[in-house]
Specification:
Layout: H1 2-30, H2 32-36, E1 55-60, E2 66-72, E3 79-84, H3 95-103, E4 106-111
Parallel strand pairs: 3-4
Antiparallel strand pairs: 1-2, 2-4
Length: 113
């Protein structure tokens, strides 16, 4: 009798763990895009905030999507760099890198994804 109670307790614990694990797996699956790509839409800064002149460039794709970009022209540029900011921020992030590229005399074309 005692063994039966212990067995039921263990089975109930295992079932509880499986239910918790399964519900977490379903939640993560349904919300995975929030964890992969999480930029905000608000532009909080631009190259003029760090003392650089820039040009806003909008590119319209063949499927009618407007892509926002900045073009920062370096003084006596050696090259032009196409810079994708990644999934951790929007176009206003990574201004520190644009400043470094500018100091290296690399003009920067930065696309907002």
């Amino acid at each position: 009798m005692v063994y039966q109670k212990i067995l039921y307790g263990v089975v109930a614990l295992v079932i509880g763990i499986v239910i918790i694990y399964g519900s977490q797996a379903v939640y993560l699956y349904l919300n995975q895009s929030r964890y992969v790509y999480f930029p905000t839409r608000e532009i909080t800064a631009n190259p003029s905030n760090i003392g650089l002149l820039y040009e806003d460039v909008t590119i319209k794709t063949s499927d009618e999507i407007n892509l926002s970009s900045w073009y920062v022209l370096a003084e006596k540029p050696r090259r032009v760099m196409l810079f994708f900011h990644g999934n951790g921020s929007n176009i206003s992030g990574r201004l520190d890198l644009i400043k470094i590229f500018y100091e290296l005399r690399l003009s920067t074309f930065k696309r907002n994804l």
